[in-house]
Write a structure and sequence with these properties.
The chain has 387 residues and is an alpha/beta fold. The strands form three sheets. Strands 1, 11, 14, 15, 16, 17, 18, 19 and 20 form a nine-stranded mixed β-sheet that branches. Strands 2, 3, 4, 5, 6, 7, 8, 9 and 10 form a nine-stranded parallel β-sheet that branches. Helix 7 packs across helix 8. The radius of gyration is 24 Å and the shape is elongated. It binds pyridoxal-5'-phosphate.
Amino acid sequence: MEVHVNQIEKRSWIEIDLAQLKANYLIYKKKLKTDADIMAVIKADAYGHGDVQVARMLSWCGCHLFAVSNIDEAVGLREAGVQGEILLLGYSSPFYAKTLVDYDLTQAIVSEEYAEALASTPFKVKCQFAIDTGMNRIGLNGDDSEQCERIIRHYAERLHLNGMFTHLCVADTDTEECRAFTWGQINKFKSVAERIADLHLPYVHCCNSAAGLNYLDGSEKFDLIGGIVRLGIILFGLKPSPETILPEGIAPAIAWKSAISQVKDVYPGETIGYGRTFKVERKSRIATVTTGYADGLNRHLSNRGHVLIRGHRAPIVGRICMDQTLVDVTDIPEVAMGDKVVVLGRDGDLQYTADDMAEDLGTIGYEVLCTMSKRVQRFYVSSNSSL
Ligand SMILES: *Cc1c(COP(=O)(O)O)cnc(C)c1O
């Protein structure tokens, strides 16, 4: 969907299409084979999209479960008036027990030791146990479901326990080995859930974006554990892994744009930028783009990446600078000062997504989104007038 925003003219800015985000949420929800609830994972400022704006839009769509990474993100959402459950997926110092209660936040319990520390404060914190089923990051050891049960029962009384979850680490990869591993994780999690079924915890969940599509099948395997999907990357229209086929209609909601400050001729034998890493071999037109690595344009794209200008690709030449980047526009007619540059997004028939940039960088779209810096102002637009 093309967004027309004629008013915005900055050095470097991001346009976020809320209607596309809404479409992503609704399409994903419809694509699920069960009527599982969606917990929107809006950590890291909603993967760079602005957590408050995204939470407000999703609340409007009926979403009432949110997850973030830490207490600052959670408090920020509450202070902005976001209602519903907010789960902190990672550690907060027990020092913040009062804040967790005051803001009605739900804390992930990362270990027995941590449960004890939280339970030893004067505050009865809302919480959910993390169960480690094979990722070896956080949680009680899911290999020993009996011990998980003992610990959970003990703290169910001393804390305000309302759920438990695990995280699947290869649900996005469709090989026999990964599928077997993922089913192993799901089964371990389910054995713990069965042992404590009598506690009737309302929030028991194991699926991320990828697992919601690839595993959650409505079968009895997901009784007790399949009622909630934690939706992250697909909400933002990107792929959990390069081989993922996204449901039709789900697309990135972000466009990162910039401008051209100067265009000049450069002659054979001259070099471009710091370190003189690009040597000009033909008479060239070089444009200066007003975005650099301080904006989040990864310096590893130097002499490798490209931007879109006037519907054409313009290769990045020389090293990306802190605030500026040089691109070769020799083959693009009539490029001039003030022209719009698409760093991420669509321009004419071409599109360059965070997933494409990630491929050029040897990373994942998640990282590209999270590293667009705060100094790049976000603007909220809607390609669809109903929002
Ligand atoms: C980030 C995160 C998610 C969301 O993962 P996506 O791959 O973006 O869907 C879900 N659960 C946990 C525990 C996470 O840390």
